[in-house]
Amino acid sequence: MDEVRSSNHVPMDEMNSSNPVNVFGSISSDQMEHRESFEVHKSVNEKRNLIWIDEMDNFLVDRLMEQMHKGQKIGGVFTKTTYAIVAREIGENFELSCNSKHIKNRMKTLKKKTFMLLKKLYKMVVHLVSMNQLK
Q: Which residues form a coiled coil (predicted)?
């Protein structure tokens, strides 16, 4: 099972321009000397949410497509190895802690967003067709 690297907690009164924390909750390189002011949580069971940006989504889709072309999608389902590889690649590329569960959850989110977008598009097309039939 993938282990979640320690997350960092900065008290609200310590969050200011002289003590920045990047969007993924890890200490910026400028703050390494101030590391003692951060409370480190090492619990593996601790819930750890990632904030996904478009660049990460694009990277995820590209990596999954590569894995699919390599035959790592069997019966419409990616292998466990695929999730581990992609999680490691995202972690390395974006310098954050990412595991297979993050990948699976993001895929679900992207599928929901895509479905909702297609549903809206369908409704717009139906509306336009009905408007043209009235003319």
A: none
